[in-house]
């Protein structure tokens, strides 16, 4: 299984970005992707959860982003999106997508994308 993230870049404070992450490879069905989420890691800080969405569409957000970030999922394309609005300098980080996938043998594995850099200029 591979996760390919894209959409990062340099943006001014107050601007918007849309991140995408597509899962491919040995995935039985979209329901096998238990959840997909976005994490971020700022310089000198630990990686933290930003938002997550389950196969059924339930979402959860970190408190610091819930009014500005929206996570969504296209089950047909095995893709998760993160719409980021009203960007702040504190949002500068490498954003990683993660998918928890159930194999045909009912083994659950977390897969990570390569990360996409978001830089917010003031």
Summarize the structure.
The chain has no helices and eleven strands. By secondary structure, the chain is mainly β.
What does this protein look like?
The chain has 122 residues and is mostly beta strands. The protein has no helices and 11 strands. The protein has strands at residues 2-6, 9-12, 17-24, 33-41, 48-54, 59-61, 69-74, 79-84, 93-102, 108-112, 116-121. The strands form 2 sheets. Strands 2, 4, 5, 6, 9, 10 and 11 form a 7-stranded mixed beta sheet that branches. A 4-stranded antiparallel beta sheet has the order 1-3-8-7, with no helix packed on it. A hairpin with a 4-residue loop joins strand 5 (48-54) and strand 6 (59-61). The chain is elongated, with a radius of gyration of 14 Å.
The ordered string of helix (H) and strand (E) elements is: EEEEEEEEEEE
Class by alpha and beta content: mainly beta
Which segments are poorly predicted (pLDDT under 50) over 5 or more consecutive residues? none
> Rg from C-alpha positions?
14 Å
End-to-end CA span:
37 Å
Mean pLDDT: 95
Biggest sheet character: 7 strands, mixed
Percent of residues in beta strands: over 45%
Helix content: under 10%
Count of strand segments:
11
Helical segment count:
0
Molecular shape: elongated
SSE inventory with pairings:
Layout (H helix, E strand, L loop, with lengths): L1 E5 L2 E4 L4 E8 L8 E9 L6 E7 L4 E3 L7 E6 L4 E6 L8 E10 L5 E5 L3 E6 L1
Parallel strand pairs: 2-11
Antiparallel strand pairs: 1-3, 3-8, 4-5, 4-9, 5-6, 7-8, 9-10, 9-11
């Amino acid at each position: 299984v591979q996760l390919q993230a894209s959409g990062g870049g340099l943006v001014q404070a107050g601007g918007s970005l849309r991140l995408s992450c597509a899962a491919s490879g040995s995935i039985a069905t979209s329901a096998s992707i238990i959840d997909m989420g976005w994490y971020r890691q700022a310089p000198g800080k630990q990686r933290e959860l930003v938002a997550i969405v389950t196969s059924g569409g339930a979402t959860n957000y970190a408190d610091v982003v819930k009014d500005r970030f929206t996570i969504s999922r296209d089950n047909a394309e095995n893709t998760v999106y993160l719409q980021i609005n009203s960007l702040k300098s504190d949002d500068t980080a490498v954003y990683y997508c993660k998918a928890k996938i159930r194999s045909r043998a009912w083994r659950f594995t977390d897969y990570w994308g390569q990360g996409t850099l978001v830089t917010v200029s003031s």
